Amino acid sequence: MAEVLDIRGGDEQAVAKAVTRAAETVADGQLVVIPDEAGYHMVGSIVDPSAAESLLRPTVLTKQSDNSDVLPGPVVLGPDAASVLGLASVSTDSEELVQRLSRRCWPAPVVMDLVPQTTPPNNCSASWWTHVTDTGQLPVRVPAHEVPRGLLDLADTLLLARPLDLTDSGDPTPGSCDSATLILQAGPRDSLEGTRRSESERTGGTSPTRGRSEPPRWRGWRAGRWSSSARATRVDRRWPRHCFAKCWPNGYNAGTRSWWTGVSWWVRPV
Questions:
Q1: Is the distance from CB of 218 to CB of 235 less than 8 angstroms?
Q2: HSE (side-chain half, CA atoms, 13 Å) at 37
Q3: Which end of the chain is less congested by CB atoms within 10 angstroms, N or C?
Q4: Which residue has the higher pLDDT, 210 or 174?
């Protein structure tokens, strides 16, 4: 039975204690369920073999979800762009685009799907890296929410985060947290209060520009639409909740994907 720490009140001391407890759990090679701006995720250390193998197991969605059969695999979370982009092999043609995307879209619930580098890094488990090289896909993200950011600071390692199936109310579905040792319960993930607070602190009190209510301005198209000029396009709350985007050097081809339960955008430079 997983230990549950209730942080729904948003009390700073309670959140700090919960994140510290989560960091200790991750350091022991266990899995933790945390909230962030993209929903709820099961997270573990990228260097721990058992944690990585658990997160790589396909997750079948419950009947409570209207999504497809299996959720996407784990995404690498890092404290900044340099920490996650260092795992990728970025071509000369795409380097400028990748750097621009990282500056404009992070921290936020935007996943960049890159090509892994050929040499295995020292800071990850062999089983996870084998999976990454076999699939040729390296999904990475820099979160904005205070919980994963605090956990990354204390854990001193990159994290693997697998999205959890959510009920209509925004809570994890029964059974989706069975393999977790610790759950940080923040209630339905329908607000970004933690994101707003943490971003406001980092920007000196200015309003956040990323999230569901105030999404980032980045180049893209609505599903099925193309444009030769992407600069004016804005990703806003009228987009489908479940979105996937592929990125070419001159823009994006965006299409809906039903398996993503949180609010997140995927971008793949090719």
A1: yes
A2: 32
A3: N
A4: 174
Q: Is 20 helix (H, G, I), strand (E, B) or coil?
A: helix
Count of beta carbons in the 10 Å neighbourhood of residue 28:
11
Smallest Cα–Cα separation from 195: which of 103, 266, 108? 108
Predicted pLDDT of residue 68: 46
Tokens of 88: 């990728």
Query: Total structural domains in the chain?
Result: 1
CB 56 within 8 A of CB 130: no
66 phi-psi bin (left φ>0, alpha ψ -120 to 50, beta other): alpha
Biggest alpha carbon–alpha carbon distance for the chain: 53
Q: Is 149 a residue whose pLDDT tops 60?
A: yes
Q: Domain of 149: which CATH number?
A: 3.90.870.10
Predicted structure pTM score? 0.71
Question: Which amino acid does the sequence have at 82?
Answer: A
Query: Per-residue pLDDT for 15 more than 60?
Result: yes
Residue numbers of the domain that contains 45: 3-267
Please, are residues 260 and 72 in contact by the beta-carbon 8 Å criterion?
yes
Beta strand 182-185 pairing with 3-6: parallel
Which residue(s) pair with 245 in the sheet?
A: 254
